[in-house]
């Protein structure tokens, strides 16, 4: 039963997408498609991401970021908006003059459809012999036409065509230059209007398989569920003229929190290229996160064609460039994304690790090559350069499995199951009292405080129920450990001993049990009462 009541929110002020734009009815093919290869990724951090920063990047931060992108495999990179600022212009000139662009990397420069700004943009790339894309944009949606540009559709089309002619005039004869057009706010533009403008541009620029034109269709401001965007992309995919000479590109933003889903469904619907930012920086709630998109493919067995095997190095550069820390729950890269505090999750992960190790041994392959099937971990943290140290962490929500795993991680000591249960109760009491997380080293200290004793104190005779011989590695030194389950007449308890030999460790464990028995013996006063 749903007992929710109407809220005081003024929702009546807003219209749904179907009241704002014609969503074309298509014979949908995209729901049956599968993504079997990576699209062309185009990071726009140095332009779209940069213009969203409270403190835009200086040339040094831009250069470090650019070099990172190149090093991990991006082959097309939007490097700036040269006509917008001297900093952006100078950065493009830095790339040109110092020959920092590898032969197999295409740079993209962004410009409005204005002759003077197009000319300035072309000046920024003068002398570059590697591939260059001139990316021209104009907003096409009704609100932008009416409020911002104050032009009707025909007038807007003339503006865009004039800009396209200027691009041709300044760059048409350059063999290394290709063209891109973005009808900004595509997702709230009438389908027939945007289709006509896009076809006009591909005709003007004479798109061909040898010199394809990029048509980039942005969800500049998210306004609908991702399936609507997929329908819009599929409509364009099936109706564009010169389709074999067009690279169909998408540029989702994340206003509704569904930018990743929009991009994935758009690729199912026919998109071949995705613009976005590494870890999702950008205006308002950000551009689509192309790192998450890439690693989602990796998690489905598809090569993302970008190397995220040292994700923490990538993170450090991105954080330094943007001056913004990445959230600890951010997919794949956050500090806590591979961490389990819950006892049931910890137990499943620990058992999954054991099963994975056995499966690798059975197959005769390294664990890093064996199929991955560990509960609660979509990918192996080692794939992206993470260790297993932070996978299981202990707080008041944790269970015996996670606690046993951390003791094994901290000291290489495998606990008997009954001892795991006993120690879990001690940890629960500790964390309930402190309210804080317990690290692996703190857990080991608590373990010693709970089960080890100085053996020179007076003790009380005990009966040893069971003895377990183990080894532990502490501060680089391997020691013999004996764990004993003991009783002094009322219930079983545990003690431990450490020694250079098994015999000395066993003696120490028995002596510790006797001291603990004395600690738990009722006092004479309590007996008299």
Describe this protein's structure.
- The chain is an alpha/beta fold and 529 residues long.
- Among the domains are: 34-322, Aldolase class I (TIM Barrel); 452-528.
- Helix content is 41%, strand content 15%.
- It has 18 helices and eleven strands.
- The protein has helices spanning 17-20, 45-49, 59-72, 86-97, 115-124, 142-149, 153-171, 191-204, 226-239, 259-268, 290-299, 311-322, 343-363, 400-411, 417-434, 440-451, 502-520, 524-528; strands spanning 40-43, 76-80, 106-112, 132-139, 177-184, 213-219, 246-252, 273-276, 463-474, 477-487, 492-499.
- The strands form two sheets. The chain has an eight-stranded parallel beta sheet with strand order 1-8-7-6-5-4-3-2. It has a three-stranded antiparallel beta sheet with strand order 9-10-11.
- Strand 2 (76-80), helix 4 and strand 3 (106-112) form a beta-alpha-beta unit.
- The radius of gyration is 32 Å and the shape is elongated.
- Mean pLDDT is 92; it is low at 524-529.
């Amino acid at each position: 039963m749903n007992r929710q009541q109407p809220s005081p929110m003024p929702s009546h002020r807003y219209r749904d997408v179907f009241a704002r734009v014609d969503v074309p009815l298509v014979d949908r093919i995209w729901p049956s498609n599968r993504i079997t290869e990576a699209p062309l990724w185009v990071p726009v951090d140095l332009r779209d991401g940069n213009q969203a920063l409270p403190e835009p990047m200086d040339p040094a931060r831009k250069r470090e970021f650019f070099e990172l992108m190149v090093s991990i495999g991006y082959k097309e990179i939007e490097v700036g908006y040269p006509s917008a600022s001297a900093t952006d212009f100078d950065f493009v000139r830095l790339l040109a003059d110092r020959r920092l662009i590898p032969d197999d990397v295409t740079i993209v420069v962004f410009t409005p459809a204005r002759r003077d700004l197009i000319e300035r943009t072309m000046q920024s790339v003068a002398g570059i012999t590697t591939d260059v894309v001139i990316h021209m944009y104009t907003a096409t949606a009704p609100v932008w036409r009416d409020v911002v540009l104050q032009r009707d559709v025909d007038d807007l089309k003339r503006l865009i065509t004039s800009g396209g002619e200027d691009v041709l005039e300044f760059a048409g004869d350059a063999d290394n230059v290709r063209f891109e057009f973005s009808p900004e706010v595509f997702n709230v533009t009438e389908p027939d209007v945007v289709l006509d403008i896009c076809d006009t541009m591909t005709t003007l620029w004479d798109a061909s398989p040898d010199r394809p034109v990029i048509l980039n269709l942005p969800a500049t401001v998210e306004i609908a569920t991702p399936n609507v965007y997929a329908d819009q992309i599929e409509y364009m995919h099936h109706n564009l003229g010169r389709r074999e000479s067009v690279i169909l590109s998408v540029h989702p933003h994340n206003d509704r929190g569904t930018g990743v889903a929009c991009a994935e469904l758009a690729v199912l619907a026919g998109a071949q290229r995705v613009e976005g930012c590494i870890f999702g920086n950008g205006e308002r709630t950000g551009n689509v996160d192309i790192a998450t998109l890439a690693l989602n493919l990796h998690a489905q067995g598809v090569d993302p064609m970008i190397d995220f095997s040292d994700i923490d190095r990538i993170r450090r550069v991105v954080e330094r460039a943007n001056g913004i820390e990445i959230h600890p729950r951010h997919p794949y890269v956050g500090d806590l994304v591979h961490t389990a505090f819950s006892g049931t999750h910890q137990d499943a992960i620990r058992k999954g690790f054991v099963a994975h190790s056995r499966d690798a041994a059975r197959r005769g392959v390294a664990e890093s090559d064996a199929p991955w099937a560990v509960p609660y971990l979509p990918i192996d943290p080692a794939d992206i350069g993470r260790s297993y140290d932070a996978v299981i962490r202990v707080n008041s929500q944790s269970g015996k499995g996670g606690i046993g795993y951390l003791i094994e991680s901290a000291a290489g000591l495998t606990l008997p199951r009954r001892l795991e249960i006993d120690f879990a109760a001690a940890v629960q009491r500790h964390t309930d009292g402190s309210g804080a997380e317990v690290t692996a080293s703190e857990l080991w200290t608590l373990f010693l405080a709970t089960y080890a004793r100085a053996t020179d104190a007076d003790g009380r005779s005990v009966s040893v129920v069971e003895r377990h011989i183990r080894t532990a590695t502490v501060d680089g030194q391997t020691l013999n450990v004996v764990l004993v389950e003991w009783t002094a007449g009322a219930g079983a308890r545990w003690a431990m001993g450490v020694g250079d030999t098994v015999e000395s460790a066993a003696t120490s464990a028995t002596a510790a049990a006797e001291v603990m028995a004395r600690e738990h013996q009722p006092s004479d006063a309590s007996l008299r009462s």
